């Protein structure tokens, strides 16, 4: 890194909306001394239906905002943004902060297990990018990967329909597809999906190992900060949770993604 960073600086975390709070939550569970500046681009969600160019443009602007807030690290807590924008962000903001995406930690965790056949579910943008197939097969040549866009899951989760017959019916509709027959593991490649992880494990009767991007990402955050001597060991400032469009309903929905009650702050960067 060319910029000098200090341990007490915050970690910037962003997503298209509030789903990335599952990642923020995991980071704070592993690293309670860290301060989080969260940005949810509720003005533009869902990213899953946007073009890669649009997602890259939004991401660039959000990271600029987070760097102005003095973040030492940026966590792209959105698979759609990680697949479309990670390389561009690394290049554009070279040396200005550490970057963590949510794709690589998941790929690493899964390929360590040396499965023969895995499935991936995600938004349309993530699936269209082909990033999981290419990274999984690069890391483990010969691995059979079947992917599917599962766009109904995000609105179902945001409406709080998990662990009930609505989510069960949709999960069954998607996961009963023949391409998932015989998979040994399923990657939940969207930061909303940890909330329906139990539903999915139940659907497979515990016979398919399910991976999501919470703990594995938090672990990579810890490792990167540690390696760069940037783990906070001082008293931290208060977290902030910004959204680009505020509604009461977003604030209420945060409760399902984050263990504590949080107050969203409207911040218009567009
Ligand atoms: N949380 C986003 C992801 O991980 C999905 C939500 C959206 O489509 O905006 O891809």
Describe the structure.
This protein has 270 residues and is α/β, with parallel strands linked by helices. The protein has 2 domains: 11-101 and 215-266, Rossmann fold, CATH 3.40.50; 104-213, Rossmann fold (3-Layer(aba) Sandwich). It has 11 helices and 10 strands. The protein has helices at residues 21-30, 52-68, 79-92, 103-111, 124-129, 131-139, 153-158, 165-175, 197-203, 215-227, 248-257, and strands spanning 11-15, 36-40, 73-76, 98-101, 117-122, 144-149, 185-188, 209-212, 240-243, 264-266. The strands form 2 sheets. Strands 4-3-1-2-9-10 form a 6-stranded parallel sheet, with helices on both faces. It has a 4-stranded parallel sheet with strand order 6-5-7-8, sandwiched between helices. Helix 3 (79-92) links the parallel strand 3 (73-76) and strand 4. The chain is globular, with a radius of gyration of 18 Å. The relative contact order is 0.20. The structure holds D-glutamic acid. D-glutamic acid (DGL) binds at residues 15-17, 19, 45-48, 78-80, 123, 126, 154, 190-192.
Provide the descriptors you would attach to this structure in a database record.
Rossmann fold; 2 domains; binds D-glutamic acid; alpha/beta; 10 strands; four-stranded parallel β-sheet; six-stranded parallel β-sheet; 11 helices; 270 residues
């Amino acid at each position: 890194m060319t910029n000098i960073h200090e341990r007490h600086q915050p970690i910037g975390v962003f997503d298209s909306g509030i789903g990335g709070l599952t990642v923020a939550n995991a980071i704070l569970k592993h690293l309670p001394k860290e301060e989080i500046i969260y940005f949810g681009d509720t003005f533009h969600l869902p990213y899953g239906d946007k073009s890669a160019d649009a997602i890259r443009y939004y991401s660039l602007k959000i990271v600029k905002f987070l760097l102005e807030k003095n973040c030492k690290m940026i966590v792209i807590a959105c698979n759609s943004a990680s697949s479309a924008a990670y390389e561009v962000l690394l290049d554009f903001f070279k040396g200005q902060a550490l970057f963590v995406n949510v794709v690589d930690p998941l790929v690493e965790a899964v390929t360590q297990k040396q499965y023969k056949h895995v499935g991936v579910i995600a938004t349309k943008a993530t699936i269209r990018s082909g990033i999981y197939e290419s990274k999984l097969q690069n890391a483990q040549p010969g691995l059979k990967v079947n992917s599917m866009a599962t766009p109904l899951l995000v609105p179902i989760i945001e409406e709080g329909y998990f662990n009930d017959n609505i989510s069960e019916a949709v999960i069954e509709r998607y996961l009963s597809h023949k391409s998932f027959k015989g998979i040994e593991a399923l990657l939940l490649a969207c930061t909303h999906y940890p909330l329906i992880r139990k539903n999915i494990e139940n659907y497979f009767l515990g016979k398919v190992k399910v991976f999501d991007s919470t703990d594995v990402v938090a672990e990579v955050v810890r490792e990167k900060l540690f390696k760069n001597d940037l783990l906070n060991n001082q008293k931290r400032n208060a977290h902030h949770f910004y959204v680009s469009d505020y509604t009461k309903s977003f604030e209420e929905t945060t409760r399902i993604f984050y263990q504590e009650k949080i107050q969203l702050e409207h911040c218009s960067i567009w």
